Amino acid sequence: MTGCIVGWAHTKFGKHEGVELETLIVDAVTDALVDANVAPADVDEIYIGHFNGGFVMQDFPASLVLQAHKDLRFKPATRVENACATGSAAIHQGLNSIAAKKARIVLCVGVEKMTEISGAAIGEVLTKASYFKEEGGENGSFVDIFARITDSYFQKYGDQSDALAQIAAKNHANGAVNPLAHFQKDLGYDFCRTESDRNPLVSGHLKRSDCSPVTDGAAAVVLADTETAMGMKKAVLFRATAHVNDFLPMSKRDVTQFEGAALAWQKVYEQAKIGVDDLDVVEVHDCFTTAELLIYEAMGLAEKGDGARAIAEGWSTKEGKLPVNPSGGLKSKGHPIGATGVSMHVMAAMQARGDAGPLQIDGAEIAGVFNMGGSAVANYASILEAVR
After folding, report:
1. Phi, psi dihedrals of residue 112, rounded to the nearest 5°
2. How many Å apart are CA 10 and CA 31, to the nearest integer?
3. What is the pLDDT of residue 140?
4. Contact in structure between 387 and 237 (CB atoms under 8 Å)
5. pLDDT score of 1 more than 80
């Protein structure tokens, strides 16, 4: 690939009551440019990832980025959306511009303000990212969609409730030491495994502890072509990227397989000339604990139907052979839709450079990212390695 991440920034994820969407954008953009030591006047192009769908009244956010500095005025700015993979979609568009030599330095920001509307309204917005006439409306919410995926997997491979609770507990323990995370509390396995007033069943086999939270936040990265990046203070190279879209209707797919996700991983492995055993750390899309379980299989960490082994034997813990979501993942760090993919790339870049502080995995050099939109419909994978 021809692009590198040369700077980044990340607001704290959580409920930002009274903080406007544009404030989140401006904060992340300002800090990312400072981190990269890039003057706003030197930015060639801007991409913003923002799902919205009705979370806030303010749509058309592209030019809100310009409010970070007067020298961003008149820069080309484009809003990108691809459901929960919106943030990665924005980054990939930036890399495409660099690869096409249309830009040398690209600013990418992801943002979402989800908490201004009611819980019921949030559910309605999120189901717009499903095949609505079969999966939304009277057919349920997005948690119901993943409950159906979970039920199908359990019917095929047996009850995996222990594994789901272990994944939730792992990610909450990881998030407990992440100062940027929405939830910073180690809940423990027993809490996550046991149905209770504080951890009720939400849909099917999924409890509250299996579901990522409703979150506000923003993250930004500055991208540069490799030649430019090598003259900067830090550079994390995209060794490989892949984007694979699958059918939107779940009725046209085997939802227990995550075939689009598996193909995206296959493509980045081939491009980077590595395999799963060469990865040191990954950030993956655990919107629900079932998703992380299925991603273990899609990425080749475990065989089909045997994803539970990866968590049961500790492979995906911080001390395991492939730490998964040391940031706490979506489950603990939070899932502000448009910001999620950018956040994941920030976390992976920090790991690759050894800059992750209390989250750092010892010896991590090659980091993977997997961000998906919908029920494994829009699938984005990246392989990152620090070169400066």
Report:
1. -155, 140
2. 8
3. 86
4. yes
5. no
Residue type, 29: V
- What is the average per-residue pLDDT within 287-309? 98
Angle formed by the axes of helices 289-298 and 161-175, to 10°?
100
Helices 142-157, 289-298: inter-axial angle, 10-degree rounding: 50
335: annotated active-site residue: yes
- What is the Cα Rg of the chain in Å? 19
CA separation for the pair 381, 245 (Å, rounded): 12
Sign of CA dihedral 85, 87, 93, 96: negative
Helices (H), ranges, 278-321: 289-298, 308-312
Residue type at 104?
R
Query: Residues 301, 130, 383, 320: is their CA dihedral positive or negative?
Result: negative
What pLDDT does residue 2 have?
80
The rounded distance, in Å, linking the Cα atoms of 43 and 255 is: 41
Angle between helices 259-272 and 289-298 (to 10 degrees): 50
Burial grade of 309 (CB within 10 A; 0-12, 13-18, 19 or more): middle
Q: Which residues contact 195 (CB under 8 A, 6 or more apart)?
A: 201, 207
User: Is there a contact between 38 and 108 (Cβ–Cβ < 8 Å)?
Assistant: no
Q: Which one from 4, 84, 108, 192 is the annotated catalytic residue?
A: 84
Q: Are 8 and 346 in contact (CB under 8 A)?
A: yes
Which of the following is catalytic: 10, 182, 285, 335? 335
* Paired sense of beta strands 366-373 and 378-386, if any: antiparallel
Residue for token pair 């706003």: 40
- Contact between 226 and 98 under an 8 Å Cβ cutoff? The reply is no
Which amino acid, 168? A
Cβ-based neighbours of 226, under 8 Å, separated by 6 or more: 1, 2, 3, 4, 235, 237, 387
CA-based nearest residue to 295, from 305, 285, 287:
285
Taking the C-alpha atoms of residue 350 and residue 344, their distance in angstroms, rounded to an integer, is 10
| Domains of the chain (ranges, CATH numbers) | 3-117+214-229 (3.40.47.10)
94-117 pLDDT per residue, tens = 999 999 999 999 999 999 999 999
Has this prediction a pTM greater than 0.90?
A: yes
211 is catalytic: no
Largest CA distance in the chain: 58
